[in-house]
Amino acid sequence: MSTVSTEKDTVSTLSDSIQKTPRPLQVAKRLEKFKTTIFTQMSNLAIKHGAINLGQGFPNFDGPEFVKEAAIQAIKDGKNQYARGYGVQELNNAIAERFKKDTGLAVDPEKEVTVTSGCTEAIAATILGLINPGDEVILFAPFYDSYEATLSMAGANVKCVTLRPPNFAVPINELKSAISKNTRAVLINTPHNPTGKMFTREEMNAIASICIENDVLVFTDEVYDKLAFEMDHISMASLPGMFERTVTMNSLGKTFSLTGWKIGWAIAPPHLTWGVRQAHAFLTFATSTPMQWATSVALRAPDSYYEELKRDYMKKKAILVEGLEAVGFKVFPSSGTYFVVVDHTPFGLENDIAFCEYLIEKVGVVAIPTSVFYLNPEDGKNLVRFTFCKDEETLKAAVKRMKEKLMRK
Amino acid sequence: MEEKLSTVAKSFTSSPIQELSHLAQRCSAINLAEGFPDFPAPAHIKTAAVSAINSDFNQYRHVQGLCDHLAIMAKKMHGLDVNPLTDIAICCGQTEAFAAAVFAIIDRGDEVVLFDPSYETYEGCITMAGGIPVFVALDPPHWTLDPNKLLQSVTRRTKAIVLNSPQNPTGKVFSKDELETIAGVCRTWNCLAITDEVYEHITFENEKHISLASFSGMQERTIITSSLSKTFSVTGWRVGWAIAPAFIASAIRNIHVKITDSAPAPFQEAALTALRSPSEYFESLRRDYESKRDYIVKLLAGIGFKIEFKPQGSIFLFAEIPESCLLSDVEYVKELIKQAGVVAVPGRGFFHTNLSMKKISQEDFSYQERYIRFAFCKSDTTLAAAAQKLGKLSDATGRLKLHHSDT
């Protein structure tokens, strides 16, 4: 790949170089989409005002002891050097076993599973490995902010199909119109951040037929699959005809409250896995070794772990939702994830960012403005996102503050 | 469905280093190929990591203390004034720091100068970002930089120069003069520089690692990348960093957040302990690696390898196949695995010199198939075992005799 442009001068002299006018040092054009994230901005504001943070999506409680112990043991056992690029074998096996249990699909851990530094990297590697500049990729808005940024890094054209309240149902006809001969892939996040929506079987089947008909790939981000409360989680890969064209991505962080460990994975048929692995090799080369060993232990947790996880989160959700409704928000139904979106307009602020700033400064609670999750920020101006991945005391304290300082009299 | 791969992904082949590792594993060969230690990581650092996990440092994290300490070290080692609040991005290993740096500064069509031979990953990264790698061959046997070759390779489209010193695979430490030459080119042509300094603490004899950023006019245009991995024998922890002027560091941080979001949290915490290691730690690191270097140089020279250039730093030795042997590097390594039970890396994968340069200069580039890279970041037991296995295949004069017509 070491080609040299044909217009290049093969011999240049020192005098040529002196005559050249220096141009100002510039960062790459692709960085237009890469500003500091809204999460960091809100977190900084929150610290300044001593606000209770229901914005950023990570727990303020820790992961389970048995997983932490496994990591500690791995460090002590000397598992501290480079792992195999595509994953420690034990972990690839555990991922395949878990996937079989969840979906019924048998995958080859050696050829169809790739371990990455979190699902974020799985997404980056999938997009950089499988998308060409100029390819069209369809996203469902609102969407997690890394998707658009990574797609622009790959030079893709992003098209958006918007999910609207109150049900955030998939407008299938809009999806059909959005597909063109340049469409390479559709990206689906289910259970969905920020709305908590879970794509129904009907919706998944409809999307699947469109993709098969138009020979389009599907990339799924399923990190909240174990936080499915109101219905069963469905993996696109398990639908007829879909495994061969789907990259299924997931991670340790949300299921095991260890978001800082950065263990994720991509499951895909060999020809797609190959592209993911190529990009992954140049993005991070290998993933944290001791954490991989610990994850292989985590994934073999008994059913009781997952049942308890769901129970705990449903209790937390109840505290938050009851509180938000009592305060006067219009709360939209959230079937999964640990997020809920609400309409803030009853409180009279002009848009979501203004409302969130008000909430931090005057009420002492943090939420995330959703406009950043849309291609057109106007689409999100009425909505803000709260998270309930916090301990019960924190949730109750936040609700209390909102009842005292925000509730419409 | 192959057409579903991106153009860039289709152009990549799997890592030859990893493939040989698999062959070596199948033959239970002693692995002197991959650059990671087979001895334990330092106890005080492992303890710090365990403590971090137990203290619940397990969520997404930015550890400012780590940046503070890196700034202190940059001042101490290179006299650089680095603002720990704005000039540093913590990433998942130097690999990710480099990838994010490339994505931060390289637009489609930008040229990037690299020195040949070089570590295989840089080129892939640059290509993925749409950049064009341009290789400048270092001259064997001492891998010296010819300033004219560098000047001939720089154009209006050159956005950056990549410098890895101490260098993988040769073990070269770029001299002050060479660094000044590179700095001069960067200033004159208004290019950026990205450095890979992962072996910064592994230099031998009186060699001192000097960062390109410390030269006049360079700090404002240099992105330094490095990591914990080689200095602290924790290549599997994935903690690295980029140090750059604020506007570039900010861009790198923003990209890193989109690629991986955060480096593993407990290991960032442990990095604080690592970087505070007393100077004795770094001195003994250097001493230990120097004696391993001496051991392997003696061993390989003794069995007939041509070692005209002793490594000045890094954990690698780039040795030339004995003149009497007509095998290519790949064939030699295969025989070494199968017959001697020792694995190393054929050197050709590190050479990329442009075909156009080859045609024009009429230089002889056949040396590119005559080198083999040995890693000596292995325990004394491993090195001794390698010596024993190679010894078994030596003839009366002590030369390695592989069972293949090589006379």
From TrEMBL, chain A:
Listed cofactors: pyridoxal 5'-phosphate
MF annotations from Gene Ontology: kynurenine-oxoglutarate transaminase activity; pyridoxal phosphate binding
GO annotations of cellular component type: cytoplasm
Xref: InterPro entries: Aminotransferase_I/II_large, Kynurenine-oxoglutarate_AT
Top-level taxon of origin: Eukaryota
CDD domains for the chain: AAT_like
Domain Aminotransferase class I/classII large: 52-401
Keywords assigned: Aminotransferase, Pyridoxal phosphate, Transferase
Matches recorded under NCBIfam families: PRK09082.1
Name used for this protein in its record: Aminotransferase class I/classII large domain-containing protein
TrEMBL record, chain B:
InterPro entries xrefs: Aminotransferase_I/II_large, Kynurenine-oxoglutarate_AT, NHTrfase_class1_PyrdxlP-BS, PyrdxlP-dep_Trfase, PyrdxlP-dep_Trfase_major, PyrdxlP-dep_Trfase_small
Entry keyword Kinase: no
Xref: SUPFAM superfamilies: PLP-dependent transferases (SSF53383)
Superkingdom of origin organism: Eukaryota
PROSITE patterns recorded: AA_TRANSFER_CLASS_1
Keyword terms: Aminotransferase, Pyridoxal phosphate, Transferase
Domain called Aminotransferase class I/classII large: residue spans: 30-351
This protein's GO CC annotations: cytoplasm
GO molecular function: kynurenine-oxoglutarate transaminase activity; pyridoxal phosphate binding
TM segment ranges: none
Keyword Transferase part of the UniProt annotation: yes
Cited CDD domains: AAT_like (cd00609)
Cofactor dependence: pyridoxal 5'-phosphate
Any matching Pfam family: Aminotran_1_2
Family: Belongs to the class-I pyridoxal-phosphate-dependent aminotransferase family.
Entries under PANTHER family matching the protein: AMINOTRANSFERASE, CLASSES I AND II FAMILY PROTEIN, EXPRESSED (PTHR43807:SF12), FI04487P (PTHR43807)
Protein name, per record: Aminotransferase class I/classII large domain-containing protein
Classification lineage: Eukaryota, Viridiplantae, Streptophyta, Embryophyta, Tracheophyta
